[in-house]
Design a protein that fits this description.
This protein has 130 residues and is mostly beta strands. The chain has one domain. An eight-stranded antiparallel β-barrel has the order 1-2-3-4-5-6-7-8. Strand 1 and strand 2 form a beta hairpin.
């Protein structure tokens, strides 16, 4: 009985949070790659990580947003051409990939890597015409 109580107690304790990736670790992992992220069992979006901490983000609809990232307070923060407010995430290694937790509102969203590739994102360019 004592072993059962101990086992129940240990499973009830929160898992020790592993530290997030540093900027250098994230840069080494992602630069030159495109990561596709999922949420709730479905594709969510993809980000192409370019040299000099530049990025391209897309919700996988062909519309891409230019941006850049920087490290701040242990998070990786992104600023995009149409969203000047930083969006900060903590990235953690999980299995063969990464998980990203949105730190602007930690209850909001956690994305997980579903694919990593050397191929660029499909970006269709600006809409033209009437």
């Amino acid at each position: 009985m004592r072993h059962l109580c101990l086992a129940l107690l240990l499973t009830a304790l929160p898992a020790q949070a592993e530290p997030g990736m540093s900027g250098a670790e994230f840069e080494a992992y992602a630069t030159g790659k495109t990561l596709i992220y999922g949420f709730a069992g479905a594709p969510f979006g993809g980000e192409e990580y370019l040299e000099n901490r530049r990025v391209l983000w897309s919700f996988l609809d062909g519309d891409c947003k230019d941006g850049h990232w920087y490290e701040e307070a242990g998070n990786i923060c992104f600023v995009y051409e149409d969203t000047p407010e930083p969006q900060c995430w903590s990235f953690h290694r999980r299995g063969d990939g990464v998980v990203a937790q949105f730190e602007n509102n930690p209850e909001y969203i956690e994305l997980y890597q579903v694919e990593i590739t050397d191929q660029p994102l499909l970006c269709l360019g600006p809409e033209v015409g009437v």
